[in-house]
Amino acid sequence: MYVGQRVKRKEDLKLITGTGRYVDDIEIQGNLYISILRSNVSHAKLKRVEYSDALKLNGVYGVITGLNIQVDNRPRNFPMAKDEILYMGQPIAAVIAKDRYIATDALDYISFDYEELPAVIDPEEAIKNEVKAIEDKDNVIYKKTYSGGNAEEAYEKSDLKIEEKLEISRVYAAPMEPRGLVVDYQQDRVTVYASTQSPHYMRSFLLAAFGDKVKDIRVIQADVGGAFGSKLFPYPEDYIAVYAALTFKRPVKLINTRRDDMFSTYHSRGQIHKVKVGASKDGKINTIIDDLIIDLGAGWHGTYLADIPATLITGPYDIKNAKVNIYGVLTNKTPLDQYRGAGRPEAAFVYERIMDIVADELKMDPIELRKKNVIQSTPYKNAMGLLYDSGDYKALLSKAESYYREMEKRAEELRKQGKRIGVGLSFYIEQNNFGPWESASVRLLSNGKVEVIIGAAPHGQGTGTGIAQIVADELEISIDDVDVVWGDTDKISNAFGTYGSRSLTLAGNAALLAARRLKENIMKLAAAFMKSDVEELQYKDGKVFNPKSGKSMTLKEIAQKATSNLGGVWRYKAEPTLEATASFGLDNYTFPYGSHIAMVEVTEEGLVKVLDYVAIDDIGTVVNPMLAEGQVHGGIIQGFGESLLEEIVYDKNGNLLTSTFAEYLIPSAVEAFNMKWLYMEIGKSNAPLPAKGIGEGATIGAPPALIRALERAVGKRFTKVPVKMEELSI
Ligand code: MCN
Ligand code: MO
CA–CA separation, 155 vs 642, rounded Å? Predict the structure, then answer.
């Protein structure tokens, strides 16, 4: 059995030997380069773009301005500002030139006239609607209330009433590789090579825009240098590049610089939660009322990032009354979309801050308070109607508690030496398997090897290895004989991609079902070849054999026979193409859950050192503990960044002040620390392979644990991430 083993990543050999192919490594004979002129003002009426000087430059093929395409959920002036500039960094013009240097130089020869408009930057100001972020739109573009029980009445009746404003700043996903694409043009065909999490989304979005001009748009996912949620849906640059290829009838290439990327890759989080919490004297939380303000920037496709935390606001706790009023507001900032965790870290920050704050107010132990409130058994329907499927939350919490108590003991010793030490624990619930289903095909090749094509589009997670483990087990063959491939809309026609920690569960189970189907077909073919009844045959260790006659055939022999043309007449009762496809979806979300425990030291200057860190998850069956652990490590470090370093900052005029890594800080090896990951396999999903996801869990669990530890170390209450050095120093 490979499932459950720490199998090494099959993806790595290519990448560590320098033979990976990222989008900027791809050159199509004769491709032109695109460079984007971006707005340096945040809100203005765009009067005129002057580019005749740029056209005079040697090597410039053309300039595109004012391109507008109607795309669902995207504002007017998409993908380029035409009459109104909505945010700093918005594309205004695109230069198409012979090489990327000429394309970039030509930007200096383009100017635009504009009439500045007041910018809307503070989301709380935006609600007042006095100044408009987009001329013809109400600033509060999305308003929705979720409620369960009777939140107000429960609040009035509560012994303890607390009001807090909790804030999660805007962040940038900061993948190592910025976004980019190469568009190959061949008269009526277009092939896009992209750094994306979903070639299939890209294809369907682009076909909606350009479908009348081409037969199909094939999208191929290049190797991707990280995405973290930010490369799921196509961006303005993608539309501009395809439009340019079709207009100039040439292949084109567009690669973001880091600065381009920081301005244009949709930012994330950016939420304010004004909460009212009612609890009884003994620590039972009765109600949460939350006014949730989400800073959507200059677009409104990110509203789902408020729906997710709204429906998860009670977390893994049995809180019967809750109400969340969402205010989705427009501002003159880069539009908002998902970053690893997508809504669940926001929810966890809120309900876990609530747990710690209520514990402090009641002078109770925070773990005792959590134990009092934690959901006792599953399945459980939460106040907003979500059905938490499976797991033993109490058991996981008590396991986490033992680590917490042990760290507290050590912390106490260190405190006696005068050190500022804090320990924090978070307990969280996840939700995954968004995007209804996923597909996979399994093929037996004539060399006897098995190719698995998945509709998910991994980009660093190692999911290809996890799925190879599943298929190798099902077909009882060596994992070396299984090759998992993905990322090409021509290889599998309908699929979604990798996001929401869904790939192992959905694509993995689709691959499992496809492998089963293929095996059934192989048995039928073998029966024809071995002149046996299929009932007489058995499948074992990658061979079909007849116990009566003692004869057997290997997969390779079956494949060669089925695909050779020496058989003469058509006589198979089974499908000789040796390919089976299946799709898999679950009719409910799955809900992994877990706990993080952190011990930190804060120096007088406000420097933070993480002394110890433990994370515990229950994700049902763990296919590859090494891969899952790797995901947790990366997520914890990103959670550390979000807690202490990362913040997108605009000034009051909408100038982006964090447009390089000198101002926008991300954690590096210097900040890294030891982390231990443990898992339980109690909460299985309903899938044939009862796994749940782990790709995002740690970004959910880390910030609340770290913030609590910091709070205990310095003796102050923190209600906003990131916590700044000056708040931590003495
Ligand atoms: N796994 C496992 N057992 C399980 C579940 C998962 O062994 N029960 C393993 C899988 O084999 C896979 C990994 O854990 O190697 C993650 O699988 P899964 O939880 O299904 O998540 P996805 O593959 O769908 O990955 C998406 C998730 C998301 S949503 C973001 S954002 C994110 C993340 O993955 N972006 C990443 N991790 C990232 N890691 C890298 N290196 N780069 C990114 O951009
Ligand atoms: Mo994601």
Answer: 32
